[in-house]
Amino acid sequence: MKDEPEGANGEVLRARLEFALATARRASELILGYYQSESLAVESKRDTSPVTAADRGAEELIRKDIAREFPGDGVLGEELGETPSSNGFRWILDPVDGTKSFIHGVPLFGTLIGLEYKDRIVLGVCRFPALDEVVYATAGQGAWWQVGKAAARRAHVSKVDQLAEALFCVTTISGWERIGRYDAFEKIRSQAKLTRGWGDCYGHALVATGRAEVMVDPLMNPWDAAALVPIVQEAGGHFCDWSGRSSVMTPTAPSV
Question: Of 31, 87, 108, 198, which is least packed with CB atoms within 10 Å of its CB?
Fold first, then answer.
C-alpha cells in the first residue's frame, strides 16, 4: 500500500505511471497467451460485441494490481463494471481494445489504461502486446513512444495541416452509418490524401506519433477513449467529440 499525497501532483502521477506501464506489460503477457490460438473461445455480449477469456483475464489482472497498490482508487472497466473511488482517482480500463482484430489474429489491438482525477483525465497508457510497442502520457509531461527495448522517445503529431495531404484512419464504416454520419465520412474520405482502416486505439496512436493525421471513431465508450485523451493532447493533437469538446463521456471522438 502506498501513501497518497493530496492531489494529482507530479510524484503521485509518476508512481501511477510506472505502475500502469508495468501492469500493462503483465496484462500483455496474459493476452499473448491467447493470441492466434485455434482454441480461443469467443462469446457475444448483450450489445453483440465479442469478448474472450483474454479480455476478462487481463482486466481481472489489472484490477487486482490496482487493488493491491492503490486500494483507494476507483476502477471502471469494459468487462467488469465499476468500483467506486474514495480519493478522487479512477482508473478506466479497456483490456483488449480491438477485440475483433485480436480474434482474427491481426496485431493492431491494444491494452488501454487511463487515469482520471476528479473528472479530469491525467494519465494514459496504450500498449500493443503483439507489436511490443507502447505510447503513454501524463498531464503536462508530454507523450512518449517506446518500441521494444529501445529508449522511449517523445511522441509528436504530424506537421501536416492540410486534409488533402493527410492520412485519415477509421475503424469501421458501419459505425458512421449507425449514427447517421455517413455523409461526414464520405466528405472527409474524399478530401483526404489517403484513407485506411487502421482502427481502434491503433489509429489514435498513429496520430499521436505522427504517422497519421486524422483518426475518427464515430461511436466510443469511456474505456475506449480515456487513455487516448492525454496521449493525443500531450503529443500536440486534439481529441474531441463532434462539438469540439474533450470528454470521454461523449459518444464520439476524433483525433487530429
Answer: 87
Q: pLDDT tens digit string along 155-187?
A: 999 999 999 999 999 999 999 999 999 999 999
**CATH fold of 10-154:** Fructose-1,6-Bisphosphatase; Chain A, domain 1 (3.30.540)
- Report the C-alpha gap between 215 and 239 in whole angstroms: 9
Residue 239 DSSP symbol: B
Reported as a single tens digit per residue, the pLDDT across 129-143 is: 999 999 999 999 999
- The C-alpha cell at 40 is 480461443
Q: Whose CA is closest to 217, among 163, 173, 253?
A: 253
Strands (E), the chain: 42-44, 50-52, 74-77, 81-83, 89-97, 110-117, 120-128, 133-138, 143-147, 153-154, 167-170, 194-196, 214-217, 253-255
